[in-house]
Amino acid sequence: MDGLVVRGSWLLAAWGGGVGCSVGCRCIVGGVVGVERRRFSVPRLTDRHFAGMLGVRSAIAIFERTGEREARLAGATHAQHHVLLALRGHRETPPTVKDVAAALGVASPSAVELIARMVGAGLLERRSDGRDARVTRLHLTVLGQRLVAELSEGHLPRLRELTRRGVELLRE
Fold first, then answer.
1. Residues of the chain with CATH 1.10.10.10
2. Cβ-based burial of 106 (10 A; exposed 0-12, middle 13-18, buried ≥19)
């Protein structure tokens, strides 16, 4: 298998057989000082690896479906639970929309829409940052605090089990 070694800056390379590169990668390049090709070996995946990956991905899917069902029963959505967790789990200062979007893995405009609905539902509130009035921080309301506690109660034991099982299944 070919690999790409880069010396310089401003290169983002992602494996996946790609565009504009004959060495099995997809590259976005700007200001690269030097590029060279070399051979390297990748460990072969065994049947055990594939079974382990399937087991972990299946467990994650079950975890997600369970979370979606529990959120629906509580009158929320799975995405709303994720936002509530992003606020409750943010440690330093209360998060911004950008912080929540990063936690959700979505673009800020998508997060803005969801957050607006949650503000309207009384789960969150927006407040100006005390140090910088240009920054808006998100805070859980009492209702939001109750909902995130209710929805998250069963998650920790299930996540621990998922992690334990994942480590067991993926062990070499």
1. 47-165
2. middle
